[in-house]
Write a structure and sequence with these properties.
The chain has 254 residues and is α/β, with parallel strands linked by helices. It has a single domain, classed as Alpha-Beta Complex (Spore Coat Polysaccharide Biosynthesis Protein SpsA, Chain A). Helix content is 37%, strand content 21%. Strands 1, 4, 5, 6, 7, 8, 9 and 10 form an eight-stranded mixed sheet that branches. Strands 2-3 form a two-stranded antiparallel sheet. A hairpin with a 2-residue loop joins β8 and β9. The longest helix is centred in the last third of the chain and has 12 residues.
Length: 254
């Protein structure tokens, strides 16, 4: 089973002030290691034995296509206004080739080994979410600034890797759409499981696996966290300090 990889390379509505700091108007085109950032995850996906093809989605797909070396396995499509709308369109498209492996253009340190580890861990799940445990990341990068979700047994940050098995995952995407504009999305989703689960998570009385099992039960889907061993999977490029860190990593300085 090989995945159709989806690279989300769109922009939020309005000006992208982060991109403007680097002389650009699109985050996906910010230079990392001397090349447009979006090239890096696309290249890693194409190098993975688990990926059959790559689709890059953006409001300006022609601009993304201009910076990606030509490859018959790569295509470009226009995205919708939000990530949820874009993913729902794919679910409703009868030509979508499942399963889907979803990542983002700012996952500049993604490598084939991490992709393969994630795909192996996602096997059998309807929805799989890549995460990195705090201890693993901070052992390598003590000063890295991430958003951590704390559960019994550990705190985790997202790796911007998602596996979706079939169009049956639409309820999960609809759930995401209901909280997509909330800056604290993960806690907002947990709150939908009821006050008891929210309180248990806040007090670290439940593990991330238990919370996702409860979420999966609510959706009628098998939802799984895939805990990745490579700390680099937890580093994306969302702000200037991330950009500096990634440049240092690529230059061998971090």
């Amino acid at each position: 089973m090989k995945y159709t990889a989806i690279v989300l390379a769109g922009s939020r509505p309005g000006r992208d002030r982060f991109a403007e700091q680097f002389g650009n108007d699109m985050k996906a085109l910010i230079a990392i290691g001397g090349e447009p950032m979006v090239r890096r995850p696309v290249r890693a996906l194409l190098a993975s034995a688990n990926v059959a093809k790559v689709i890059a989605l953006s409001q300006s797909p022609e601009r993304i296509a201009d910076v990606i070396p030509r490859d018959p396995r790569v295509s470009f499509r226009e995205s919708r206004g939000t990530i949820a709308e874009t993913m729902l369109e794919l679910c409703n498209d009868p030509e979508t080739e499942w399963p889907l492996l979803v990542t983002t253009a700012d996952q500049a340190l993604l490598d084939p080994g991490t992709i393969d580890e994630f795909c192996n861990g996602a096997a059998g799940a309807a929805v799989a979410i890549g995460v990195v445990e705090r201890r693993i990341l901070e052992n390598r990068f003590p000063k890295a600034q991430r958003t951590w979700l704390k559960f019994r047994g550990g705190a985790y940050t997202g790796a911007n890797l998602f596996a979706l098995s079939s169009a049956r995952v639409k309820p999960a995407i609809e759930l995401w759409r209901s909280v997509e504009q909330d800056r604290k999305k993960a806690w907002r989703i947990i709150s939908l499981l009821g006050p008891a689960t929210l309180a248990a998570a806040a007090l670290r009385l439940v593990s991330v696996d238990e919370v996702l099992a409860r979420l999966g039960g609510k959706l009628g889907l098998a939802v799984r966290a895939v805990k990745l061993s490579n700390p680099l999977a937890g580093v994306d490029v969302d702000k200037p300090s991330d950009h500096s860190l990634v440049e240092d990593i690529l230059a061998g300085k971090a």
